[in-house]
Structure formats: structure tokens, C-alpha cells
Amino acid sequence: MKMDIILRAKEFAKKKHGDIKRKYTPEPYYSHPFAVAARLKAFDKYKNNDAVLAAAYLHDILEDTLTTYEELLEKFNTKIADLVQELTSNKEYYNDTNEDMEPSKPSAKAQYLTDKINNMSKDARIIKLADREHNVSQIADAPNTFIKRYTKETQYILEHLHFEPNKEEQDLINSIWEKIRPFLTQ
Question: SS3 for 124-167, per residue?
Fold first, then answer.
């Protein structure tokens, strides 16, 4: 019997991320995509959406491991592989020289991510928002310079979204604001 696609995605993500730890925490890296998928499962709209949930488990796999798009196609399906590819950032588009995020000049990364999110499919966008929400929920233990840069980057993204959010997207956006607000006043 063929293994459930969600279970396969979980196991594949865990294997590919291996023993890598999350930045600024002792947690294994795979705990992050697992948390992103769990957040999406909490929404009735996504709890049975296998493609979205599998892509949530796999969302960092092309960016952070040696996994290829072709490997995802072979192991999963076109919908999942395409979602993961859509979620993958191309770091060639941003080489940040504005690390301090002057309010008048957003970083290249903030601009790139804002444009990317504004142009994503709804399925990719909900994963990206859950990804950002989880990242900001764990920011308190990071160095102050990282906190400042990441929260300003997130603020820029949220202030420049040009789509009409559905209920689930709005819930995530509100949660992200709530999580970064204390750091924006520091």
C-alpha cells in the first residue's frame, strides 16, 4: 500500500533537513515546517488540502537542502512540486547592503519578498504567511540586530501587501502584526 502523501512529505522533510538546527534555537530545523503545516491544519479550509499541507512540510526543501525540483516531482506530484518551487526564494535577486533597514529605503530582500508574496497563488501565499508567522513567533531569542532587521523587513512586507486577503490570510496577517509589534518599538 502506498504511503499517505502527508506522511511521505513529513518523513521526506525530516530526512532532508537532517540534523540541522533552527537558527537561534536548539530545535531541529524540521520542527519549523512541521509547525507551519500544523498552523494550516487549524484552518477548516486547509485541514484536508493534501497539496497545501504537503507543500507546507516541504516549503524550505529546495532553498535549504540539495533537493531538486525534479526529485520533488518524482516523489510527490506536479502540484506539490510547483507550490514548493513557488515558495522558494531566489537569493540572486537580493544581495542586501541595507542591513539596518532605513525606513526610507527598504532592503532588497524586503522588496523582493513583498513582490513575491503579492504575486503568489493563494495556496502558496497561505503557506508563506504561516511560515512568516512561525518565524516571528520564535524571534525573541535571536540577537537584537537580527530582531531589528527581521521585524522591519516583516513590517515593510505587511505594509505593502496589495491583495485582498481571505479570512485565513487575514488571521495570519493579524497574528504576525501582533507578534512583531513589541519589537518595533524597541
Answer: HHHHHHHHHHHHHHCCCCCCHHHHHHHHHHHHHHHHCCCCCCCH
